[in-house]
What does this fold into?
Amino acid sequence: LAAGTYTGPGNQHVILSKALTLAGAGAATTILQYDPLTPWTLGGRLGILEIRVGDVTVTDLTIRDAPVEGGVALWGAQVWKSGGTVTNVTFDEVNFLNNAGRGLELHNDTTIVNLVVRDCLFEDNAGHGIRSASTTRISGFTITDTTFRNNGQSGYTQSAGSASYLSGLHVDGGTFEGNATYALRVGNVYDAVIEHSTFSGGGLGIGFITAAAGADPIGQVIIRNNVLTDLGGAAILVDITNTALDAPLTIESNTVNQTVGLLSMAGAAFDVGLAAGQTHATVAIDDNAITLAGTLGAATAAHVLKLSGGLSDVT
It folds into this structure.
């Protein structure tokens, strides 16, 4: 796609159903923009771009301004093949800006294998920057050098659901700023590394939370070498309250600098809760630097570390 702003009916709910590379001239100059004055009338109301097949790369463009239409908050792009598998999808230097729903939706009843988000920007989306739905299964998800800024919900979230599963997550070199609820939230996850990233402002930092436990194993999660600054809640929240942690959790070599007056509620920088009555894998919290400073505001207490529940093997 040459430089320019692409809008109107031909730029709404574009379905990619064959392997291809969709390459713009640059994210600043090639813009796929939803025109709210031209409502989509053919049904679906799913936003701008939909990927239903593997071996697709989207690069060097911006996807923006999907509106609320017919009472539905539209998202910028989605990966969706109901009941099927989509393999090898890459977003490289793509901006997802100011969409009324999510920037990128990884939709229900889809198995996604080897998804890459590289050098992208998710900013000012009213919903999540990226959301994987409650029945989406992902094997291999790499997020590198990507910024999530001022999204109305989380930067990235894995929605709760016993059928939701995420294995092989690697977040490296990310920037999470001012996302309203969580910077990054996962739950039914196995084999995840979150490293070399910065988290600041907004709501909570990193959440590992099982709201609807499934049959798949969870754990083998490493959170290391991150910097978390002046969040609205816990820097790292682990809430495994309805199942067992099947494989180790390691939280190491992170730096937290928290002005306590910015906290919205009493709590701890690292808050780790495990289900009582379960046999859990090892939890290791090692070599982190946590500084709390300033005067309390809305929060009546601020702690460095809180441990609760089934603490059978915590170091």
